[in-house]
Amino acid sequence: MSFPDPIPIPKSGALERLTPLxxxxxxxxxxxxxxxGTCTYIVGAGDVVVxxxxxxxxxxxxxxxxxxxxxxxxxxxxxHSHRDHVGxxxxxxxxxxxxxxxxxxxQGREGGVDSGDERSYAPDRELSDGRSIKVAGLxxxxxxxxxxxxxxxxxxxENEGTLFSGxxxxxxxxxxxxxxxGNMADYLASLEKLRQRTETMYWPGHGGAVADPxxxxxxxxxxxxxxxxxxxxxxxxxxxxxxxxxxxxYPGLDSKLRGAxxxxxxxxxxxxxxxxxxxxxxxxxxxxxxxVV
Length: 293
Hints:
elongated; alpha/beta; 7-stranded mixed sheet; 6-stranded mixed sheet; Arc Repressor Mutant, subunit A
């Protein structure tokens, strides 16, 4: 489900100054799952940090180097290790000799449907929940937000009272939760965690800014719980296969988004099963069934 963006969705390839300390450069990797492209953020002035360098795209790399030509990139912050966010980490590090900061790469997991996990990614410094980082005169606080990916982090930018939300909270669309790495219980808990915070604006990994984030995150939580109730109702009515449940709760969906909807449905069913409200018989991806307990 898509939501209206409070601020216009940025153009692919565009570099914009958002605040005195934050610029956004959008990668040219537009798709139904990435909006107009991955948002790379350049934070600071003179000495800067880059949040999510973006996909390994030569045009985006050239634009990023041009945007920081007269500056020193001191650090690279990574929200999560999907290829569309970290593909340029190694190249940018090679040109700037900057430190890479992020959560550890999850082991034994497949990448998400929207991008995939970049196995070559490894941070120089592994970050944990609640850690405060000061670099280039900028203050960041690490917030662990698993759900979309097990190693997803958000970064509270204390200098301006805002938050880099990666793919966890986006204004243009709901986040894809794609098992096995995506976990609905973790995602809902991470949303609730952010709802208790006080940042006034979110800068997401795709699309425009999230204004009035506490209200918006509350709306996301309500939407997800309503979706889960609809899924449970279909199962209770005897709809017992993954494809049939997904088709029932996402009627008339664009064919390009059906795979993502199917995986989000699976994530909700797994959540219902974890709460003891549903029982999965066999592999739902391969002929298995789900019934109400």
